[in-house]
Amino acid sequence: MRYSGFQVFLNGLTGNRGWAPVWRDPAPKDHYDVIIIGGGGHGLATAYYLAREHGITNVAVLEKGTIGGGNIGRNTTVVRANYMLDGNVEFYSHSLKLWQNLSAELNYNVMLSRRGCILLAHSDGQLDALARRGNMNLMQGDGAELWDAATLRRHIPYLNFDDPRFPLKGGLMQWEAGTARHDAVAWGYARAADRLGVDLIQNCEVTGFRIAQGRVTGVDTTRGHIGAGKVGMAVAGRSSQVAAMAGLRLPIESHVLQAFVTEGLKPVIDTVISFGMGHFYISQSDKGGLVFGGDIDGYNSYAQRGNLPIVEHVAEAGMALMPMIGRARMLRSWGGIMDMTMDGSPIIDRTPVEGLFFNGGWCYGGFKAVPGGGHVFAHLIATGNPHPAATKFRLDRFARGAVIDEEATGATPNLH
Ligand SMILES: Cc1cc2nc3c(=O)[nH]c(=O)nc-3n(C[C@H](O)[C@H](O)[C@H](O)COP(=O)(O)OP(=O)(O)OC[C@H]3O[C@@H](n4cnc5c(N)ncnc54)[C@H](O)[C@@H]3O)c2cc1C
Asked: Hey, what domains does the chain have and what are their CATH numbers?
């Protein structure tokens, strides 16, 4: 079923009984050309682009829980392409361009809202560094606007300019950045992949790999053995555990990241504000809730929930930046498992096992990367070669010393 204004009108008149299920619920087949492990954003997008761009439709996405129950449904929905280092700059730019037309392409409203994202600067040196970053973005064809303190104050007057924890010197604004509806991205890709013939198999956990003479031949699952020509892993926070089943040890640690939302308020914050110095960022959802987060919990964990010290830390940082949020009541908080690489940048590559491919290491930035990550991963699986926008995300870059240390805080996750 194709969604349209006419369908909404028709179903409105007929008691909304005409809607078809959003995707099928097929039983797993014995064999697929490609199996994607993980029904999160990256797994679903990969399956969609395999079918759409490469004509490979004998594909299954195996998801141990339900579609959208992982980080794709737990993130704070920030979409941007204001990275600085070679490798990341071209990739995130590629992804941002795919976001642009995504709702129309998927025939599903992902509620992309280009409301801009400002990275704050607190010293002259930091403003210089942001200018350099902005130049990288401009050279890539993405937007970047350097704001001085007066411009910042004009646009965002409610920041704590007069008694700041760190001086507010200006910032780097990217107007093309913003937010999107996280669930809708999962559901939109799932529905579009299903319509192209991809089998989405939920409640199907991969428990092992079948490997013969160095080549993957299928996977064992809680719903039995399923054969495959090729297998792609896109399991985010569970990357190390799933890769270990194929005998691989990844340069990845899993950490918890929390997010918070307040009760619904009238529109007050019309952009995304990133306060890197204080470990805090905030936007306002379409429902009116202030959505914010901060740093990772800082210990390795596979629990999808966080601890109180970070709640205090994030609330403190928020109060330091914009004391007005002290009046809002926090409604909910939750956590997700982050797959943190040792340099803060992702990995999209072949593995030493023939036919087995890896997508992961997204740290806390993989939502904005969903269209791009799925697109380049599908290219890699279909052609065997990296997509031009993702040539640097190699698995062996740590051994070669070719790290992409985007966060510039040291090549260890505990310093992020
Ligand atoms: C609190 C929070 C805030 C965030 N904010 C942002 C943000 O503002 N912007 C941004 O760009 N990014 C953000 N992120 C990061 C982003 O959400 C993730 O990087 C991204 O969603 C990870 O990719 P994914 O969607 O494919 O992961 P997931 O949705 O986690 O998908 C992986 C799937 O694999 C499944 N799986 C695992 N093991 C198996 C197995 N053995 N067999 C079968 N299936 C398996 C899991 O159940 C899961 O559904 C945030 C993350 C969190 C937790």
From this structure: 25-78+182-250+343-415 (3.50.50.60), 114-177+253-341 (3.30.9.10)
